[in-house]
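Please check this.
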Amino acid sequence: MKKSMNQTSAVEKLRANIKTSLIVLAALLCITGAVFSTDVTTANEDRTLAESSQTIPMSKDQAGVSKFALIAAAFAFAAGALAAGFAISHVGAAAMGAVAEKPEIGGQALIFIALAEGLVVFGFITALMILGKV
């Protein structure tokens, strides 16, 4: 009876943490959208910007695409990091349990943990590919 109450409270804590994380993620996405949204400038402002900084200003469509590309890159990296954390927590716990029973398989256990860590690398590479297209 006591064990099931502890499991129930752990599940409730996990649900609360997930809800908090989703609220924070939604707030960050809203802030990012507000920061990267730009208005279309007039023709005179375009000329002065081009003359002063030697850069071509973005149109409203280009700014929208850039905004979503940055959000997509952040999401790709975050998803890879979260997936790796989830995988490492489960694989690492199982690997350390196996090493406790049979110490000679420690090297193999590290290989499995490193494979789970590869998810972060895939997310990072995906984010770089998205940012390279912007």
User: Anything to note?
Assistant: The chain has a mean pLDDT of 80. The first helix runs from residue 2 to 36.
